[in-house]
Design brief:
The complex is a heterodimer of chains A (81) and B (239). With 81 residues, chain A is α+β, with helices and mostly antiparallel strands. In chain A, strand 1 and strand 2 form a beta hairpin. Chain B folds into two domains: 135 residues, Jelly Rolls (Sandwich); 86 residues, Jelly Rolls. The longest helix of chain B is centred in the middle third of the chain and has 27 residues. Classes of the chains: A alpha+beta (81), B alpha+beta (239). At the A-B interface, helix 1 of A face helix 8 of B.
Chain lengths: 81, 239
């Protein structure tokens, strides 16, 4: 299985993933990114703050960027009603 | 062979020379396992308990969707499953996280020990009580601690436990876990753990890199974790 690296980019700063994780493909890596975003935002929400301005950038072992998953893609957002 | 077990027990109570010999006689077959090997499956019948001699192991349970919760980490000197002596099977799996060496202790020999060595029997009882105390502390983490405090607490606990058996220095210890495995201990995702590790590093509290935990500010780390080592019962008193 290829190795993917999930780097976080948001207001707090970039967090490089130096370890990576072996996954079946990009859809699987995207799923991991979504779970990660939900986990981080849920924690921040406990302190009364939701910041969806960041993204998780997925790269392969050679450092090539494969996909960027914006934080807001991890949620079905409803702000009115 | 039972040096680490002796260090763990002697941190809590005196062990007489004859008792040390009795402990040595418990040892049966020795087994080596590669990393990532599940060595005991939930539900399998067991007529022996395993004492960890080298490496690190964990207890874990899985959900159908692939979610995994690691509920305990074992370091050398720990029994993986002293509770299987009375339970005869486990309600969880046990996995080698690194290359490991264990010695099997047949339940028959444990039974004989309970009949001949009341003090050692009480110490083994203490040992399963200690396991339960650690599970309670992990429950507190999973249910109530913030993400950063969960990871900080895990690092503090391992520092204290490895010090008892002489496998940690003041500066830190070897911890050959991946971020995903840490995430499985603390109920977070590996992405989230990665960010928490960065926060801990930026605050100059602890660094985790290349399979090594380096303490930068142990007191500060213990403060953020609300680490109170009383649950590890590190004081020596007659049991």
């Amino acid at each position: 299985m290829p190795r993917y690296y999930l780097h976080i980019q948001n207001g707090i700063g970039d967090v490089r993933d130096e370890e990576g994780v072996d996954l079946s493909g990009i859809p699987d890596a995207r799923e991991r990114a979504i779970e990660g975003i939900r986990s981080i935002v849920a924690e921040e929400a406990r302190d009364g703050r939701i910041d969806l301005t960041g993204a998780i950038v997925i790269s392969n072992a050679t450092g090539e960027t494969l996909l960027a998953v914006p934080f807001h893609e991890a949620f079905d957002l409803r702000l009115d009603g | 062979m039972i040096d680490y077990l002796l260090r763990k027990l002697r941190a809590r109570d005196e062990i007489a020379d004859l008792e040390e010999l009795a402990l040595g006689r418990l040892a049966g077959e020795i087994r080596d396992y590669p990393a990532d090997k599940t060595v005991i499956q939930e539900g399998e019948p067991l007529d022996f308990s395993s004492l960890l001699l080298e490496g690190m192991m964990c207890r874990y349970k899985d959900l159908r969707d692939g979610g995994r919760q690691i509920s305990a980490i074992h370091v050398p000197g720990d029994f993986l499953d002293l509770h299987s002596f009375t339970l005869k099977r486990l309600d969880h799996n046990v996995m080698a996280m690194t290359r490991c060496k264990v010695v099997l202790v047949p339940h028959e020999r444990l039974k004989a020990m309970t009949e001949e060595e009341p003090h050692l029997t009480r110490l083994f009882w203490f040992s399963t009580n200690l396991d339960a105390a650690m599970h309670r502390e992990w429950e507190l983490s999973l249910g109530r601690r913030s993400a950063i405090a969960r990871v900080a607490h895990l690092f503090c606990e391992l520092q204290a436990r490895l010090e008892i058996v002489g496998l940690a220095e003041e500066a830190g210890y070897d911890f050959k876990f991946t971020q995903t495995e840490i995430a499985e201990c603390v109920g977070l995702t590996s992405v989230h753990v990665n960010r928490v590790l960065r926060q801990l590093r930026e605050r100059r509290l602890v660094e985790f890199r290349g399979g090594r935990v380096t303490m930068l500010d142990r007191a500060g780390l213990e403060r953020i974790a609300e680490f109170r080592p009383a649950y590890l019962y590190l004081d020596r008193r007659p049991i």
